[in-house]
Write a structure and sequence with these properties.
About 45% of the residues lie in helices and about 10% in strands. With about 200 residues, the chain is mainly α. A two-stranded antiparallel ribbon has the order 1-2. Strand 3 and strand 4 form a beta hairpin. Helix 6 packs across helix 7 and helix 6 runs parallel beside helix 8. The longest helix is centred in the last third of the chain and has 19 residues. The protein starts with a strand and ends with a helix.
Length: about 200
């Protein structure tokens, strides 16, 4: 920890602005990122193939499905981070990839969950929105299939919900809208799937 002077507005466009002194002794800095492609670097370093023969240690179980757990500072340097930055990160760890259960929880459980946001938007137009469990599972399956992660949930929901969000409010006789599995599948047609894959 040390005392550093930082501009309150950020940036360096106004070097004459007053600086604020911050003591970093009790601040925990967390750096994170996707680091797309670092798995190949880890795989090359931990490759256990020797001239066509597989050499495996019985005491060590190598997890081929999640090579990120074997990441070290050398891998980050090979990836392109400068040593000066890596040296200031004393703890290096990884996160487990999101599974179906985690994506479903993100979609439904938090206070500002994605489905709750859509229910609020429809409620503004006096329309009660409900999504079947099968449709929720379908959305999660597509996010897993396209490898879009949690961010992909919104793009998939947008494809499914957009038409209804624009069309239903003009129909005064409709007070309830149920998203079924068939409806979700019909909205996520082949053209929409191609768009999602391009976006990913």
């Amino acid at each position: 920890g040390t005392e550093v002077y930082v501009p309150p507005q950020g940036g360096r466009k106004h070097p004459e602005q007053k600086l604020v002194k911050i003591d970093t002794a009790n601040i925990l800095f967390i750096c994170g990122g996707a680091f797309d492609g670092v798995e190949k670097i880890i795989s090359n370093r931990t490759n256990k193939q020797v001239i066509g023969f597989s050499v495996e240690n019985e005491d060590e179980q190598y997890d081929k499905d999640n090579v990120l757990k074997y990441i070290n500072s050398h891998d980050l340097r090979q990836y392109g981070l400068i040593p000066e930055l890596i040296g200031r990160l004393p703890v290096l760890t990884y996160l487990e990839p999101l599974d179906k259960d985690a994506l479903k929880q993100i979609l439904t459980q938090p206070k500002n969950a994605l489905i709750k946001q859509y229910q609020k938007l429809f409620a503004i137009e006096d329309i009660e929105l409900s999504i079947s469990d099968e449709a929720v599972d379908f959305i999660v399956d597509k996010a897993m299939e396209f490898k879009l992660g949690a961010r992909g949930l919104r793009s998939i929901c947008e494809v499914i919900m957009t038409d209804a969000m624009y069309e239903l409010p003009s129909q005064s006789e409709i007070s309830e809208f149920i998203v079924t599995l068939d409806y979700a599948q019909s909205k996520l047609g082949n053209n929409k799937v191609k768009q999602l894959r391009v976006a990913s």
